[in-house]
Amino acid sequence: MKQISSTFMNNRSYNQYCGLAYALELLGERWTILIIRELVAGPRRFKDLLNGLPGISTNLLTERLKHLEQHGLIVRQVLAPPAGSTVYGLTDLGRGLEPTLIEWGKWGSQFVPANSEHVHILTIGSYALTLKTFFRPELAQFRETYQWHVDGELLSITIDHGQLYIQQGLSQQPDTIIHTTIEVYLQLLQGAISPQQAVDQGLLQIQGQLVALERFLACCAINAPA
């Protein structure tokens, strides 16, 4: 067992010799878990995190990032030129939370409203964990790479014989390239619209075979197509 950190021993501590209590002290503050969610698909800039967390203030985001960095869950780094941007990414310790977050997402999905009329729609990167939550490895016995262009964001997704890999940005030689909006992307995942309907209505442009997108949805959709 790791030595108990003295940074926890304060007036906000549960002061309980219990792993769950220490986890809550690390992650229980508002927005903290959602920051981890934002980094599942890879490192992000501060302004990208703000975009994926509508409602958080810059000061509070700075505070939460500092907290997570101090406790070794995230790391800050400067990208090499020409980018030169500062990004935040998960450490191995932070990535270790992914299975737990997936289970929380499965449990919490039963409370998600049927429509998004009164809630924020997020970015495609924010929904990376959703794909992992509903992924069906038994249906994913093939290899295919998808490059999604959604409202100015890029997400590359590879299905490889029961494994799902997700990363921000471009992928090399994608099999299928898709352009659409986040609203249509979510409708596809929810089964509210079929790929063919989205193409016919001019809501989605695809380079590659439509059947590839249908395979993707069979493996990753919230409601699997019949």
Count of DSSP-assigned helices:
10
Count of discrete domains: 2
Strand order of the largest sheet: 6-5-4-7-8
Q: Please provide the count of β strands.
A: 8
Description:
The protein has 226 residues and is α+β, with helices and mostly antiparallel strands. The protein has 2 domains: 16-97, Orthogonal Bundle (Arc Repressor Mutant, subunit A); 125-220, SCP2 sterol-binding domain (Nonspecific Lipid-transfer Protein, Chain A), CATH 3.30.1050.10. Helices cover 37% and strands 19% of the residues. The chain contains 10 helices and 8 strands. The chain has helices spanning 19-27, 32-38, 46-52, 58-70, 92-95, 98-108, 128-134, 182-190, 195-200, 210-220, and strands at residues 44-45, 74-78, 86-90, 143-150, 153-160, 163-168, 176-180, 205-207. The protein has a 5-stranded mixed sheet. A hairpin with a 2-residue loop joins strand 5 (153-160) and strand 6 (163-168). The longest helix is centred in the N-terminal third of the chain and has 13 residues, at 58-70. It is globular and about 60 Å long. 23% of the residues are buried. The mean pLDDT is 92.
